[in-house]
Amino acid sequence: MEVPILKQGAFLIATFQAALSDADLNQLRMGLVQQVVKFRSRAVIVDVTAMDVMDSFASRTLREIAHMIRLRGAETVIVGIQPEVAFAMVQLGLTLEGVATALDLEEGLAYLNDKFRTAN
Amino acid sequence: MPKREGPPTFPEANREEPSELLRELVAHLRQNRTQLREEWVVRITETRLLTAMTKEEIFAEATSVYDSYVEALETEAFEALQAYARNLSERIIPRGVETHEVVGIVLLLRDVLARSLFAKYQTDFKKLNRILDAYEPAANRIANTVAVGFVQERERVIRQQQEAIRELSTPVLQVRERLLILPIIGVIDPQRARQLTEQLLRGIRTNRAKVVVIDITGVAAMDLTVANNLVQTVEASRLLGATVIVTGLSPEIAQTLVTIGVDLGKMNTVGDLQGGIEQAERLLGYKVEKLAEPR
Q1: Whether ipTM exceeds 0.85
Q2: Mean pLDDT in order along chain B per 10 residues (295 residues)
Q3: CB contact under 8 A, B238 and A101
Q4: How far is A81 from chain B (nearest CA, A)?
Q5: Are strands B211-218 and A11-15 parallel, antiparallel or unpaired?
Q6: Do B152 and B26 share a structural domain?
Q7: Cβ count within 10 A of residue B100
Q8: A92 interfacial to chain B (CB closer than 8 Å)
Q9: pTM of whole model > 0.80?
Q10: Could you tell me the CATH number of the domain that includes residue B99?
């Protein structure tokens, strides 16, 4: 399953679909970093609104994506984690530590704009 | 050899069916309804049961209980009786009637009716035995059914009240744009902790909150489970993009958290609620300025 990646100025927006297989996640990890390199993006927003479940593999993959993207000098923000999913995640100890999060796409963009405005 | 003479025997009446016997005793109980019911009410007052109710109320309820009792004997429809018992309980529990009173009055009725059967059939011992064989199991089943119905209703009421208390006691309050306050008061058991977290997360999403102040001034004590729940609540809130400030940690709870080894680095804590709100406002970019003295 292809995950759509849209370019929004200096940012990339990747929208996760509901049921992503491990293979999809692996493919995405490589794909996203390549896109960051290609467009010299400053940040990636990963929108997981459609995900109603987040297992440890998906969670680890997200952290790895953020880590790899940071090595390229870019920021990652995860947005759209649903309350039920968040609750289940913390019970399993999946806290996405070290990765920025925001309520939704709008908040994610606001966070990034804020961050880059104060940085400049 | 003189013939051994046994006690004189009456000619055996035709053995009646149990259902016939039941019909016969039900008819007797109906016929003597007024008198037996009166006797029962007297016994109730003598034993000082149903003191929460007036004489008129006792009489009214006694009438309906008596009729239901006799009907249950007749029809053996125990589901209907249980429904009646729950209904009755719904009426009298708010009046402060206790379980032992309900069981007590049903047993008194059983006894009053049994005595009346003794009186009627005292000349025919064998028949009395057969009548009691029919009466006793049914009467015991009735007492059981009514008691169980009453207790079930009480448990239902208690569950309902607990739910209401739980809901009332975890309000998620929006005090500014993007700022929620969750004051926690009382005892937190794992169930309540879970409900709290779910309610807060839903509130964060609905109100698009960026900062949450959780005030635990009103929480008396905290154990490992609850402390972990608090940490999880903070972590889950972050996943929704909200920062949590915990305020009102008592010295005891602070000690507990340190002893347990909760990573307080994960938690943003401020002394009291006022301080917490002030910090929240700063985080959100508010500045509060006093313009004039209060009149």
Answers
A1: yes
A2: 53 62 88 92 90 87 89 86 87 86 92 92 91 90 90 89 75 91 86 89 95 91 84 94 93 84 80 92 89 86
A3: yes
A4: 6
A5: unpaired
A6: yes
A7: 10
A8: no
A9: no
A10: 1.10.490.70
